[in-house]
Write a structure and sequence with these properties.
Helix content is about 60%, strand content about 10%. By secondary structure, the chain is α/β, with parallel strands linked by helices. The strands form three sheets. It has a five-stranded mixed beta sheet with strand order 2-4-5-7-6, covered by helices on one side. It has a five-stranded parallel beta sheet with strand order 9-8-10-11-12, with helices on both faces. Strands 1-3 form a two-stranded antiparallel ribbon. Helix 1 packs antiparallel against helix 4 and helix 4 packs parallel to helix 7. It is elongated and about 130 Å long.
Length: about 600
């Protein structure tokens, strides 16, 4: 037990002072009872003086208790314990003087009654004084002293019996008080340990959250820094691919595009893993037309399988119009990951996507398996393949590439959708990945059949491009000019405002991070200006290397209409221009 611990000392002092308040009133009641019992048989002057001293000192101690309650922080706990100990000593001395007088000069009946009152006060003081064990020892000694003196100076059988009884009472009280004090201290130490543990856990949690925020910020910054030069690589490679090329030049351009796609996939995997670990990757329940999703997946992979000389199979057994409530985007992401791995690690044979459906009341169980005849996974490695940055072995990393993040993300996405992704080896070689999803059926009112809309012709646009990076500015300018648009460039948000003050444009492509004034502040000022002078809303599309969901939200909150992440894909840029310029024209 650590009685020197500041918190334990403070709590013991507080307990002692809190309980002693009631003790003063109990002492006054007991003193009044003794005064009444002995008033006719003893000196009334002495009794009144003794009773008055007991009362006055009790009032003084009550004032000390009040001062402690109001000003405890002005003094340390050792001071308040010293004052309390002195008060207990003076009180017990006053009681010892009065008790000795009464015991030595009273008939046997009054002596017994007096001893009973003294014993009651002594026993009753134990819960109050035990936290300060020295105070209990002093009080118990002086409160039993009159009975001992009475037995010593008047050794009748009754007085001797009372004296022996009070010796045992004294010893028992001190032992019980020590045990009581130890229990209190242990309880305080346990409470203190729990409090400190909770504080340590809170500190650790805060540190973990700070570390996680720092990691997320680091990943976002790295993503931004990688996407910025990648935008130049991907954009220029796309433009170069549109020019007449020799077969050798076309091969080099294809290598650039494939390498850029692999690097972008790595960046996206790291961002997805970061979101999943932070529990910020949302699973959205929407209507999913299962056969349509499978048809899209088949269209995506059948030609690739054929180009590798592999047999592609889609084995679907279910309703041709099966529509459920689930997250089609995440389902596609999982299937693309698993099928991409299957094709990557299969050199000959077949890759099969098998889907079975089973009706269960208002839900449908969708059983999905991706099977390949590839290199397979050793049984000893199966428990670890879903760990981040882990592949079957080092040689597969060198032979096939990859980071080992895809399966980690796929499993966590499947868990987020309510399933469990497991892997097993095939009897004839290769690997099977399978999972079940239990999704509710979509109501007829919730089913929306999407029909492809023909692309509406778009006129040449006057585009204001806000971009501080010269390479990215050149890439975007060339892509826009190739689509027939005219481009005006601005290197920061202040330039954007100055250009808009001089001339009208059809749309603004706004970078987020720019010197002097960033894209968010520029957008807010444009929107405020539109409200002030009642101008029509100018379409503003974010074009940024900040690809996190938080960045998209910040752009929308600032007043932007859409969000395009770098590297810039020409088809997405064209789609966004068509959507927002056409909708703005319709509104006018």
């Amino acid at each position: 037990m650590n009685l020197t611990d500041a918190v334990v000392l403070q709590r013991i002092t507080a307990l002692s002072y809190r309980g002693a308040i009631g003790g003063q009133f109990a002492g006054m009641v007991a003193a009044t009872a003794l005064l009444a019992l002995h008033f006719d048989t003893h000196s009334q002057g002495f009794l009144l003086l003794w009773w008055l001293c007991i009362g006055v000192f009790a009032l003084y101690r009550l004032s000390v208790f009040r001062r402690y309650r109001l000003h405890a922080a002005q003094r340390d706990d050792a001071y308040w314990q010293k004052i309390h100990l002195q008060g207990v000593t003076m009180t017990s001395v006053l009681w010892a003087i009065g008790g000795t007088y009464l015991m030595l000069s009273s008939p046997i009946v009054l002596s017994v009654l007096t001893a009973l009152i003294f014993s009651g006060l002594t026993v009753g003081s134990m819960p109050v004084l035990s936290p300060m064990l020295n105070a209990m020892r002093i009080y118990a000694f002086f409160m039993t002293l009159p009975i001992w003196l009475n037995a010593l100076f008047d050794p009748t059988s009754m007085n001797m019996t009372l004296g022996i009884m009070f010796i045992f009472l004294f010893i028992t009280l001190l032992k019980s008080a020590k045990n009581y004090r130890d229990t209190i201290v242990e309880s305080l130490e346990l409470e203190l340990a729990q409090t400190r543990l909770a504080e340590d856990l809170a500190v650790a949690r805060n540190q973990a959250e700070q570390a996680n925020r720092a990691k997320t910020e680091f990943i976002a910054n790295v993503s931004h820094e990688i996407r910025t030069p990648m935008n130049g690589i991907v954009g220029m490679a796309h433009l170069l691919a549109q020019t007449p090329l020799t077969p050798l030049q076309q091969e080099k351009v294809d290598v650039i595009n494939q390498s850029a796609d692999l690097l972008l996939a790595l960046v996206n995997d790291v961002l997805d893993l970061s979101k999943i670990e932070a529990n910020r990757l949302d699973i959205v329940a929407q209507t999913v037309h299962v056969p349509q999703v499978l048809a899209e997946i088949e269209q995506m992979f059948c030609l690739r399988a054929k180009s590798q000389g592999l047999l592609w199979r889609l084995d679907y057994q279910g309703d041709a119009d099966l529509t459920l409530l689930g997250d089609a985007l995440r389902l596609r992401q999982v299937l693309v990951n698993l099928l991409g791995n299957a094709l990557k690690f299969t050199e000959q044979g077949a890759v099969t996507l098998q889907v079975r459906t089973q009706h269960e009341a208002a839900h449908c169980r969708v059983q999905i398996a991706v099977m390949d005849s590839g290199i397979g996974i050793p049984a000893a490695q199966l428990p670890f393949i879903f760990d981040a940055f882990v592949q079957a072995d080092g040689s597969s990393t060198r032979a096939y590439g990859g980071t080992g993040l895809g399966l980690t993300i796929a499993r966590r996405l499947v868990r987020g959708m309510g399933g469990e992704l497991v892997a097993s080896g095939n009897v004839k070689g290769g690997t099977t990945f399978q999972f079940d999803l239990l999704w509710p059926y979509a109501l007829a009112s919730e089913v929306v059949i999407e029909k492809a809309q023909p692309l509406e012709a778009i006129r040449p646009l006057q585009v204001l491009l806000a971009e501080d990076n010269p390479t990215n500015r050149l890439v975007a300018t060339r892509l826009l000019e190739k689509q027939g648009h005219t481009v005006i460039s601005a290197e920061n948000g202040q330039w954007v405002l100055e250009i808009l003050a001089r001339q009208a444009v059809d749309v603004v492509l706004m970078d987020m991070q720019m010197p002097e004034m960033d894209g968010l502040e520029a957008t807010r000022r444009i929107r405020q200006q539109e409200l002030t002078v009642s101008q029509p809303r100018l379409p503003i599309i974010a074009l940024t290397a900040n690809a996190m969901a938080e960045d998209r939200l910040r752009c929308i909150e600032a007043g932007m209409d859409d969000f395009l992440a770098k590297p810039l894909k020409p088809e997405l840029l064209d789609q966004a221009l068509r959507e927002w310029v056409v909708s703005a024209s319709s509104a006018d």
